[in-house]
Each structure stands twice: as structure tokens, then as C-alpha cells.
Amino acid sequence: MPFDAPSPPARLWVPKRVLVTPAAMGWAHGAAMVERAAALGAEVVRLKADRLSGLPADYREAKRTLAVTVASPSRRRPQPIPPSADWRFDLAEGCPAHCSYCYLAGSLSGPPVVRAYANLPEILAELPPLLGKGQVTSADPARAAEGTTYEASCYTDPLGIEHVTGSLAETIRFFGTWDAPVGLRFTTKYDGVEPLLDLAHGRRTRIRFSVNARGTERHEGGAPRMPARLAALRRAAMAGYRIGLTVAPIMPVPAWEAAYDALLADCAAALDGAPEPDLTVEFITHRFTEGSREVLQGWYPGSDLEMDPEQRSRKLTKFGSAKFVFPKATMADLRRALEASAARHLPGARRLYWT
Ligand code: SF4
After folding, report:
1. Exposure winner among 45, 100, 156, 245, fewest CB in 10 A?
2. Residue 316 parent element (H or E)
3. Model-level pTM?
């Protein structure tokens, strides 16, 4: 794959409508988001009250809607997020892509609009008091070199909306000037890394690219194809960012063993010659809950993604709800093959977890 070939500009999401609350307009960061969306051609609706109203019920319209709002004190409070990082914090919630397996479908309530938070200074102010206090990288000698880690992509793909929000660049700069053992991490399926390349990131940000076997791409409507993601990974690595691979969601697609082996070989090729990418790999197998299955089958009734509880093992989450994962034997086959491919193609990478 020609990772160094000039790539076409990333296809950017353009919201059709932007709803903005009065409180969000009071923040310069919120007003700038509205201005950028309007410049892209979005219709701007200024709400009269701070409660979001007028959200479209249809999921397609909702995914074309940006709501610029203010994160409440409870939403701003970082939460533990094992096994990925010490803390999670949210710059936004929701994602414009249409992945027919998306875990957000079962996690976020209401129409799937993209909510972006205007009060970024307040969100970032929550992070320093947590320095050294986490239970994942802060507590694990094998990951201690990562410092206190903060995850920014639990409920959104922050790069997919960055050209409108600008929140990720601001956050990367914040970590770049934070002179302490800290790490910002986010995962993305998008490729619009250009605005991040020249930032003073201080190597305190790890960009994790969500990658998968080519056979899974048909389940990822609206997200850039794998070669575009790998080309973006290369550009980020050449700009000195720490790099991660989030191999997800792993599924036994036809000829899966060869397909995942080819994927990890492509990742290695994309990183060839990159200066110290400090590569990490996370493996996440496909799973669903009753709730996410119901929502996703409603949105994407034509999808042939297997979500059959009869073919799965039922496991209880730590919150007491059920999730459906691959049966033990399938899981063991997948794990053996993917870990062997990773060891072969990416011998210098740290494998963080398999789930
Ligand atoms: Fe969900 Fe990620 Fe796909 Fe967005 S890119 S729809 S967050 S799986």
C-alpha cells in the first residue's frame, strides 16, 4: 500500500443543522464552533433556552445535527475507564458515522445527534486534580510509563468532528504544555489529522487508530476506508505522536485469519521508518447488548452483521446487564491468531489487553 502517496483531502462531515443554546454561545469556543459550521453551510438554530429541544426523531437526520451545548458539572466529572485508561472525559457525545455495530447506540439515550461542549476550559480544569490518582496506568507497573492517562473518545470520535469543534487541538495543546507524567489518548476511525500535525503535543498524546480486517468495512458507513486510516496513522507517527492500534471490533469474517494477518502487516508497513511511535495494541472483539442490538437493527435493518444471541455467550457486565460475546472456543481461536500476527508483524508493540 503506498502510504506516502499524497492522499486526497479527508471527506469531512458537514452538519445540516446546528442547534446552539444561549449558554453555549456565551463561550468563545462554542461561538467558534457555530461559526465554523455555518461557514460549511449548516443552518444555525439559536435555541431560546439552555435545554436542548427540536431534536429530530429520525436517526439519519439526528446524525446530521450538531448540538452545541454546555457540559453540566456532573457530565464534566471524569470517570474511571478500565482497561483503557485511568480517566475518561468527554469533549462531545455522538458520532456522525453509521457503523452498524456501534456501541454508542446502546450507551447514549435519545436521538443520536452530535453534542459538542462549548465550555472546554471547565472540562479541562477537571483533569489536573486527578494527576496520579487513577487505577489503570497509574496503578500498573507495566503501564506506569504512560503516566496518568485521560481518554477522550468514549462517547464520540473526536477527530471525525474536529474540523467543526476544534476541541481536540485545544486539548492536545493543553496536554502539550502540562509538564507532568500525563497522557491524552483517543481512538478514531477518521483520517483528518492535518490540523493536528503541527501542534506542540509534547508527545503526551497517543492517537489510536481503530483498524479492522477489510471484510468489516461494509459495516462502517460514513467512516474513511482502511487505506485512508493507515495513511493518517503514518502522518501522525511522522509528526511524532505516540501511536496506538485499536483492533476492533474483531469478528470471524470469511478467511479471517489471513485478513487480520494482512491488516497487521499493513499497519507495520504504515509505520515503517516512523520515529519512535511507541506503539500499543488493544484487541476488542465484537459484542452487543440487547439494547444496542435493538437500536442498531432499527437503524440498519438491511445489515447482515451477525447479532444472534443464540450464537453467542452471555456475560454479565460489571453494571449487572448482559452482553453477548463470542463463545469461548471462537474467542480462543481469534486471540491465538491475532496475538501471533501482532508478535510477528509488530514485535516492538506493547499489547495492552484483549477483551
Ligand atoms: Fe460508532 Fe466509532 Fe463508527 Fe462513530 S466511527 S459510528 S463512534 S463505531
Report:
1. 45
2. strand 313-316
3. 0.95
User: According to the 3-state scheme, what is the secondary structure of 157-224?
Assistant: CCCCCHHHHCHHHHHHHHHHHCCCCEEEEEEECCCCCHHHHCCCCCCCEEEEEEECCHHHHHHEECCC
Cα separation, 185 vs 137, in Å, equals 12
Atom number in ligand 1 closest to CA 97: 6
Interval 245-277: pLDDT, tens: 999 999 999 999 999 999 999 999 999 999 999
Conformational region of residue 114, where left means phi above 0, alpha means psi within -120 to 50, and beta covers everything else: beta
Grid-cell match 477518521, residue found: 190
pLDDT in tens, 156-172: 999 999 999 999 999 99
Write out residues with Cβ below 6 Å of ligand 1.
95, 97, 99, 102, 104, 157, 189, 223
Using CA positions, which residue lies closest to atom 1 of ligand 1?
102
> If one looks up domain 189-286+326-355 in CATH, what number appears?
3.80.30.30
How far is C-alpha 268 from the geometric centre of its chain's CA atoms? 21
Domain range list for the chain: 189-286+326-355
Angle at 22 between CA 45 and CA 60, to 5 degrees: 35
